[in-house]
Amino acid sequence: MAGTEGRSSASSSSSVVADWSLVFWTLCSVIVPVLITLWCSFQRSRRQVLIRDIFRKSKHDWHYTDLFGQPSYCCVCAQHILQGAFCNCCGLRVSEGCLKKADQHFLCKEIMMRSDGRAHSSMPHHWIRGNVPLCSYCVVCKQQCGTQPKLCDYRCVWCQCTVHDDCMLDCLKIEECTFGEFKDLIIPPYYLSTVNQLRKDKRTDYEKIVPYGRKHWIPVIVLANTRSGNNMGEILLGEFKILLNPVQVFDLSKTTPAKALQLCTLLPCNAVRVLVCGGDGTVGWVLDAIDEMKIKGQERFIPQVAILPLGTGNDLSNTLGWGAGYAGEVPVEQILRNVMEADGIKLDRWKVQVTNKGYYNLRKPKVFTMNNYFSIGPDALMALNFHAHREKTPSLFSSRIINKAVYFFYGTKDCLVQECKDLNKKVELELDGERIELPNLEGIIVLNIGYWGGGCRLWEGMGDEPYPLARHDDGLLEVVGVHGSFHCAQIQVKLANPVRLGQAHTVRLIQIGSLFLGTSCLDRICSYSVSTFFPSVILTSHF
C-alpha cells in the first residue's frame, strides 16, 4: 500500500510540474514576442527622431522606406540594403547608418545655379553612382547598365542618361548636359539664375533668355493633391521631382495653387502648361486661382491646364480625354509626353449666384463657379453628405472603392427615406427667361460637361431616343430631371432615360418651399441663377 501511495504521489507531482511547465512556456511564447515588439518599436521611435532631425536640416528631400522596390545599394558604403532613406529629387539611396555622411558628401539637384557674375546658357552633368533604373542603357556603348549585383554605373539626375563605370572617361569628354528627352519641359537652374539677375535690374523681358536651342520650350508646372487617390499623389510628387526641376513640382497640401502659379510670371508669356494631379475639385481650385491671375492683370502669363485624374468621379478629366482614373498603370514619362502633345480647347465655365430673399435683399448674393454640373435633389444630398463625412474623418477616405461604397450607402438610404420628393412643388425652373412646367421630380441637374456621377453620360441616357447635341464649349447648359435615387441608379447602368427639360444659355431655379440641399433643410426662399462666366483654355488628350 505504501509503495502504491508513493507512486501515485510521485505521478501527481510530476503532472503538476508538467502543467506548470506548459503554463510557463505558453506565457513565454506570448510575452517574449510582445516584449521584443515593444523594444523594437521603442528603438525605432528613437531612430525616427534622429532621422527626422537629419531630414529637417538637409537640402535633400529624404524619405524613409521599410522596403525598396528594387535591388538597392547604399551610395556611401556600397552594401546591399533592403530598407533605408532615398532622396525624392536626386534619387540617392543610403542605409540608415550612412544617412548623415551621405547628407554631408552628396549634393542634391540645385533648383538655381549659384551666381558667379556670369550669364550661363548650359550646365554640366550631375552624376549619381549606382541604383540606375531597370532596363537602362549606357549612352556610350549602348549596352545595358546596372546588371552587376553591386553598386555600379552612373546616372545623371537631369538628363537621366546612364553610363558604365568603364565608359565614364569617354562620357566626361561631353561636359554639357542636354536635359534629355524632357528638355522642353524642364526649367534649367541657369535660367532661374538669369531671371533673378533680371529682376534685380527691374527687367521682365524673359522671352530673350529662353534656354539655348529650345524653340518649342513649354515648361510644365506640376500641382499634386496628396489627399487624392490611393496615396498616388505623394508617389507622383517624387517621380516628377526626379524627371523635372524640383521647383516645378508643388504639393497642394503645403502650397496653394495661387502661390504656385506665380512661378508662371517668371516664364515666357503663354508658354507654360500646368499638370493638375487630383480630382475634379482640385482642378476647379486651380482654375479659380487662374481666374485670380486674370483679375490681377496677369493674363499673358496664364497657363494651359492638363489633368491627371486621382479623384473618385473624375467626370471633367473623362470629358476632356484624360481618363476616368489613374492608378499607376501609365509611366510618368508617358504622362509628360501626353502633356507635351495635348491640344488646347475651350471649356465653358459658369457663375452660380444664390440670392436669399428673406432679408429684404440686404444680403449680398453668394457667387460660385461651376465647371461640371449643379444640382438640387438626391445626388446633391449624397455628394454633400459624403463631403461632410470626409471632412470629419479624412483618413478613412483614402481609397476610391471606399469612397464609392460611401456614395452607395447614402444613395440606398435616400431610396428608403426620399427626403427630396415633390421637388416640382417646391422649385420653379426658367430657361432663358421662359418658365418650364415641371413633371413629378425629386432632382434637377444642370450639366456643363458630358459625364456625370462618375462616368455616366446623363444627357444621352440609353441612347435610344433622339436628343440635341451637347458640348462643353458651346455656351449651352443641359437641364435634366430625375425621379429619385433609384432612377439615378437606373440611368447609371443604361436602364432608363433622364427627363430632358431643355438646353439654355441661362438657367434660373426659384425656391418656393422648404427643400433639402445637402445635409440641411433650406426654409428661406432662394433663387439660383446659372449664367456664363468666361471660358478657360484647357488641354485635351487624344491618348
From TrEMBL:
Give start and end of each DAGKc domain: 215-356
- Membrane topology listed for this record: Single-pass membrane protein
Q: Is the Transferase keyword given for this protein?
A: yes
The main place the protein resides is cytoplasm
Keyword terms: ATP-binding, Cytoplasm, Kinase, Lipid metabolism, Membrane, Metal-binding, Nucleotide-binding, Repeat, Transferase, Transmembrane, Transmembrane helix, Zinc, Zinc-finger
- Which catalytic reaction applies to this protein? a 1,2-diacyl-sn-glycerol + ATP = a 1,2-diacyl-sn-glycero-3-phosphate + ADP + H(+); 1-eicosanoyl-2-(5Z,8Z,11Z,14Z)-eicosatetraenoyl-sn-glycerol + ATP = 1-eicosanoyl-2-(5Z,8Z,11Z,14Z)-eicosatetraenoyl-sn-glycero-3-phosphate + ADP + H(+); 1,2-di-(9Z-octadecenoyl)-sn-glycerol + ATP = 1,2-di-(9Z-octadecenoyl)-sn-glycero-3-phosphate + ADP + H(+); 1,2-di-(5Z,8Z,11Z,14Z)-eicosatetraenoyl-sn-glycerol + ATP = 1,2-di-(5Z,8Z,11Z,14Z)-eicosatetraenoyl-sn-glycero-3-phosphate + ADP + H(+)
The Phorbol-ester/DAG-type domain is annotated at 59-108, 124-177
TM helices/strands, residue ranges? 20-42
List the EC numbers from the record. 2.7.1.107
Q: Name a single GO cellular component.
A: cytoplasm
* PROSITE patterns tied to this protein: DAGK, ZF_DAG_PE_1, ZF_DAG_PE_2
Q: Where in the cell is it found?
A: Cytoplasm; Membrane
**One Gene Ontology molecular-function label:** ATP-dependent diacylglycerol kinase activity
Q: In which pathway does it act?
A: Glycerolipid metabolism; Lipid metabolism; glycerolipid metabolism
Question: Is Oxidoreductase set as a keyword in this record?
Answer: no
Q: Which SMART domains match?
A: C1 (SM00109), DAGKa (SM00045), DAGKc (SM00046)
Q: Name one GO biological process term.
A: phospholipase C-activating G protein-coupled receptor signaling pathway
Q: What does this protein do?
A: Membrane-bound diacylglycerol kinase that converts diacylglycerol/DAG into phosphatidic acid/phosphatidate/PA and regulates the respective levels of these two bioactive lipids. Thereby, acts as a central switch between the signaling pathways activated by these second messengers with different cellular targets and opposite effects in numerous biological processes. Also plays an important role in the biosynthesis of complex lipids.
Name the family the entry cites: Belongs to the eukaryotic diacylglycerol kinase family.
Q: What is this protein called?
A: Diacylglycerol kinase
Tell me the organism.
Answer: Anas platyrhynchos platyrhynchos
Chain's gene name: DGKE
